[in-house]
Amino acid sequence: MASSNHEILLDPRTGEGRPDLDALAVSRLSSLLTDAPEVAAELLNGANEEQADALIVFRTISAVAAHALGNHDVNLFSQAIRSFEAIWKLGDRDAMLFLRTPAFEASLWEPLVVELFALGGLAVRGGRWDEFRELVLQEPSSRGVWLRQGQVASSRDAQPEDSLLQLAARRARHLDPDASDEKTLSAVCQADFLAAVIISEADPDGYFPNAAEFGEGFVEELVIGPLRDNGSSLRRRIFSEDDEALREALRLYDEKARLYAAQQRGRGETWNWRGFSDYRSLLFIVAGQRPEGWEGGGGWS
Predict the structure, then answer these.
(1) 82: which residues sit within 8 A by CB, 6+ positions away?
(2) Number of neighbouring beta carbons within 10 Å of residue 142
């Protein structure tokens, strides 16, 4: 007998991308995303054990979204984002006004933001920039983008043993088991960095530099390469403003990352960000220069 949508949504194997989602028609995957918010709402309003099952629904939505990324299905991915948005709105938008996030919203938004950062890492690894930008810029509660809101809600409620990016990298490995741990962590850090660059266009203070925990090594290659290149697909889709605005965004991220990393080291934590140091990054950020354009190796072109 064929499984119902409810059964598939609550099957832990589906949240891991198993059974193979390729075996399901796109129309069936779309119907799963349509039903997911209602199923999640029923569980979240139920007994404690039912509330825990809502996490399986979240993971199933992520698995379908990851499937959509792999198959370049923009419409299916957008529908997954809308499903997440509908579930996000089950929380009280005014919960962020409290110094301590109410238990319901914290338990709702924290696992959702882990799924979102994991998907962000997958989108970055696959170069799916339009989908990544769509994921980043959602503001379901009009209290800032959901990536920042979910992190703040989580940090106000408790200090998890693992950081947000560690949790997201672990989740991304489940969604893409062929990737190594290092490549997955690198992609999630790059997603955090690029999300901050996107957010900074509208709100320079609307993000936290999570990647500072792991150092600049994972993300500086993006500055050296596609971000400085006005013709790259990443630059065109991630940051639409001019070089001057990008340089300011990069300077501010680096400054924040160095500050927070230093504070964490002062508390005895191992945060590795020391600052952009490659000459190509620094010359672009400080002077707006691309040293590849120098002539004769001794002066400015």
Answers:
(1) 33
(2) 6
